[in-house]
Write a structure and sequence with these properties.
There is one protein chain. By secondary structure, this protein is an alpha/beta fold. It folds into two domains: 263 residues, Luciferase-like domain (TIM Barrel, Alpha-Beta Barrel), CATH 3.20.20; 70 residues, no CATH class. The protein has 13 helices and 13 strands. Strand 2, helix 2 and strand 3 form a beta-alpha-beta unit. The N and C termini lie close together (8 Å).
Length: 341
């Protein structure tokens, strides 16, 4: 299984290069970079140009405010400069952000994202294979590519496209059209992957005659780990607080409902609307953490994670330690997780 690192969305852009070099030294296969406080494509460039082996993926780039042509040019450059180590993760974002934060018109996201991926692949085919650029859809139309603007073939081939998705339509679209699905921490538990996510991916894949072998899946469980039992406990409490915030959002309730905890989501939503933030953490029970959060010290966590995602994920995220003094321990965990079964 591939093991990927992540980074704090508020990390200064000047610190990204060192963070990426550290992830590479620890043995991570790749690094997910956010598109939030900083532009995700600029963050990816900083990470790629600082490393030699590490793969870097946007997780996830907000697609609709950006023209597929602009994204294609940036992705092509990143793939070229990194000699094939860039992966484009894209997502739709919620309506409030698309309209209010990006001043972009809203439309049903699944049909629009289907066209977005199709447009990217048409542009890539034009540059890589010399195919005529002739993509015409409801939302996007690309029919002109003069030689002056054509960057030409990339020695390492087109950029892989991964889709961030939670709902049934977007998840099925990942199976239909993307190279893989990037899961959210709220939809990465083994039961949810097995009973909900993979059936949706299979449904989408059937539309285009694809098999499971053609798709990747990145599980993004929040992992409570550390050198000591006290550190693990502290990490679990931090995740409890984060879950209190995340599960106040209705989009993330399906996993709660699968386990019979739907009422918790509704309670959290009400508390958030009333501004009663300090009370939300207590609504996340120990039982929820036991089921949703893999926990254990560095010396014992690898076996449990390998068993947790066996046959369900091709990639998983694992947290980099805040203290570099723990790097040697984490490097051993990363090696164990990535070793052949």
């Amino acid at each position: 299984m591939e093991v990927w690192a992540a980074m704090d969305q508020r990390m200064a852009l000047a610190d990204v290069a060192e963070h990426a070099r550290r992830a590479e030294a620890l043995g991570y296969c790749g690094l997910n970079v956010p598109d939030a406080v900083h532009d995700g494509l600029l963050v990816a460039q900083a990470a790629l140009t600082a490393t030699e082996r590490l793969r870097v993926a946007t997780s996830v780039l907000v697609a609709f405010p950006r023209s597929p042509m602009n994204v294609a040019h940036a992705a092509w450059d990143l793939q070229t400069v990194s000699r094939g180590r860039f992966e484009l993760g894209i997502g739709s974002q919620v309506r409030g952000n698309i309209v209010g934060r990006f001043s972009t018109a809203w439309s049903p996201p699944v049909p629009r994202m289907r066209e977005y991926i199709g447009a990217l692949r048409a542009i890539f085919a034009c540059w890589q294979d010399g195919a005529p650029l002739a993509f015409e859809g409801e939302h996007y139309r690309f029919t002109k590519m003069q030689p002056f603007f054509n960057p030409g073939p990339c020695a390492d081939g087109p950029v892989p496209i991964h889709l961030g998705g939670i709902g049934p339509g977007m998840t099925a679209l990942a199976g239909e059209a993307a190279d893989g699905l990037m899961c959210h921490p709220t939809n990465s538990s083994p039961r949810y992957l097995r009973e909900v996510v993979w059936p949706r991916l299979d449904k989408g894949a059937a539309r285009t005659g694809r098999t499971r072998e053609a798709m990747g899946l990145m599980a993004a469980d929040l992992v409570a780990t550390g050198s000591t039992a006290a550190a693990v406990d502290a990490a679990r409490e931090g995740i409890r607080e984060l879950f209190g915030f995340l599960y106040s959002t209705p989009s993330y309730w399906p996993s709660l409902e699968l386990y019979g905890w739907g009422e918790v989501g509704r309670e959290l939503h009400d508390l958030a609307r009333e501004g009663r933030w300090p009370e939300m953490t207590a609504r996340v029970s120990d039982e929820m953490l036991e089921v949703l959060v893999p926990s254990g010290r560095y010396g014992e966590i690898a076996d449990g994670l390998r068993a947790r995602f066996a046959g369900l994920a091709t990639r998983m995220t694992f947290p980099m330690p805040g203290d570099p003094a723990q790097d040697a321990e984490v490097s051993e965990v990363v090696a164990a997780l990535g070793a052949p079964a």
